[in-house]
Amino acid sequence: MREIAGVVVLYNPDDSILDNIHSYINDVDILYAVDNSDQKNNTLTQQLTENSKIHYIDNCGNQGIAHALNIAANQAIELGYQWLLTMDQDSHFASNILTKMLDYIQMRETSNISIIAPFHANKYHLVSPSYDLYSPVLTTMTSGNLLNLEVYTKIGGFIEDLFIDYVDNEYCLRSNLLGFKIIQINHAILNHNLGDLRRHQFLWKRFFSTNHGPLRRYYAFRNRFRIIEMYKTHFQDYCSFEKTRFIVDIIIILLYEREKCAKLRMMFRGFRDYKRGIFGKYHD
């Protein structure tokens, strides 16, 4: 059985994606570059396809991150791969870091592990606060994960009508609910740009704003309430935390972010569509 395939989901990428891909391309046998861009960058596409390891897939417009991940996972399964590295276009590994995650696969029994995740670093958190080399976590972001494709076939793929935001959290919660673990390799550091992250101080409390645009706020608020509804019985602490984040996000937007009215309006639409059972890609 082959071991490692990879996927990077593209959406209007710039040339920096080439350097990001070079940070992990040597550790995978094949890389699926699934392009969700509405307007294709033909020059960049040509550069990608010049690498024999990269299999470019035109998704014919933005079909959402869940759909892109499912395409790559199913193609990797058909070719006999056991693991799928899932990458965002704005993420990269430092030298030899991915090897630490691959070493974990070689040293441990992994049949009950759904995802092996790195520690996601940003410009404010550069190292893991944990002294343990490995630790179980409830959820993790998509980028930098090694997805166990045998588990994927057992629990089902990513929910496509979530489209984007909370796609990763839902998959992690479902994994835990069905008895599969998410293991974070704390000394494997992934450099991940989470929106336009900024730090703020109010009295003794620090806040972080991601400065995501109005449309991302729509998806986040709509899907957050759906996840809470799905898992409130089984993961009460997680759902309580998400309810608190709902309030905190509104406060941060009002105090620190631009486009306040547009974001609040789209958040309201997200909650409205959740109540109406409207999911998938947003349409005016």
In words, what does this structure look like?
The protein is an alpha/beta fold and 284 residues long. The chain has 2 domains: 2-192, Alpha-Beta Complex (Spore Coat Polysaccharide Biosynthesis Protein SpsA, Chain A); 198-276. The protein is built from 9 helices and 11 strands. Strands 1, 2, 3, 4, 5, 6, 7, 8 and 9 form a 9-stranded mixed beta sheet that branches. β10 (198-202) and β11 form a beta hairpin. It is globular.
Question: How do the strands and helices of this protein lay out in sequence?
Answer:
Blueprint: E1 2-10, H1 16-22, E2 30-35, H2 42-49, E3 54-58, H3 65-78, E4 81-88, E5 91-93, H4 97-107, E6 113-121, E7 134-136, E8 145-148, H5 149-155, H6 167-177, E9 181-192, E10 198-202, E11 205-209, H7 214-231, H8 236-256, H9 260-276
Parallel strand pairs: 1-2, 1-4, 2-3, 6-9
Antiparallel strand pairs: 4-8, 5-9, 6-8, 7-9, 10-11
**Would you list the SSEs in sequence order as H and E?**
EHEHEHEEHEEEHHEEEHHH
How confident is the prediction overall: mean pLDDT?
91
List low-pLDDT spans.
none
The general outline is globular
Number of strands: 11
CATH topology of the largest domain: the name is: Spore Coat Polysaccharide Biosynthesis Protein SpsA, Chain A
- Count of helix runs: 9
CATH class of the largest domain: Alpha Beta
> How far from one another are the termini?
46 Å
Q: What's the alpha carbon Rg, rounded to whole Å?
A: 19 Å
